[in-house]
Amino acid sequence: MRQPLIHIFGGTSDARQICVMMDVARIDYGLSVATPTGAQQAMGVRGEIVTGRMEVEEMTEYLRKRGTKMVIDASHPYAERLSQNIVNACQKLGIPLIRYIRPSDIDAIEHPLIYKVATIKQACEIATSLATRILLTTGSKQLADYVAHLTGKTVLARVLPTAEVLALCESCGLSVDQIFALKGPFSANFNRAFYQFCQAEVVITKESGEQGGFREKVEPCLSLGLPCIVLCRPGQQFTGEGITQANGLEEMSQLLANFGT
């Protein structure tokens, strides 16, 4: 079987949409996801799905053996280490890289109840000064860091309903009353009801953009009078020789159209 010449990294909803674009354009590709959950989210796409995290040496060897001619980084906007590994591997091999940038809504909403921060520590310092019951809608990857900075507070975590994630929540000391295992996307109405149900006094979230339901998470906070702390995206955009940025799915579609011609 012929190996695909394009390899995509990313378990996000954006990555899946890019795969669908490539399916429609009949472009062969492979897709790397970090976890079995990412593989489940990608089910139905035509490309080969590879599950498991790779460090830069393993990634470089994998791409070399496969004869990869182009890489698309459609990983999560906060996956800095993965993106840097992808850049390093591509530059070692001289492979062109398309870095997909999820459009941001961070500048579209300004309000006194919205606090924009650059680090987890800053988010937790503000939350600690504002409230006791703190809801995290930031995922599970850095849950331990939040819990460590929120000592003495009631931390509520909305996370994916997988055994691995639930075990992580328990290892961080969260009880069944503090864990809300749910899978999005969530509407603004659902979030409003959810915030009320869990009696959140402040919400910490990420600048996740339209695909991540950013407005749907923030707007209910404003309507309920809840402070909303937003962890902004890392500033580094991984630019350099051989790297092309695609800002949003429309630009990505145009790049793929050019590839097919």
From TrEMBL:
Enzyme category, top tier: oxidoreductase
What Gene Ontology molecular-function terms does this entry list? oxidoreductase activity
| EC number(s) from the headed UniProt entry | 1.3.1.106
Which Pfam family, just one, is annotated for this protein? CbiJ
Q: Which PROSITE patterns match?
A: COBK_CBIJ
Q: Which UniProt keywords apply?
A: Cobalamin biosynthesis, Oxidoreductase
Its pathway? Answer: Cofactor biosynthesis; adenosylcobalamin biosynthesis
Recorded protein name is Cobalt-precorrin-6A reductase
Q: Which organism is it from?
A: Xenorhabdus griffiniae
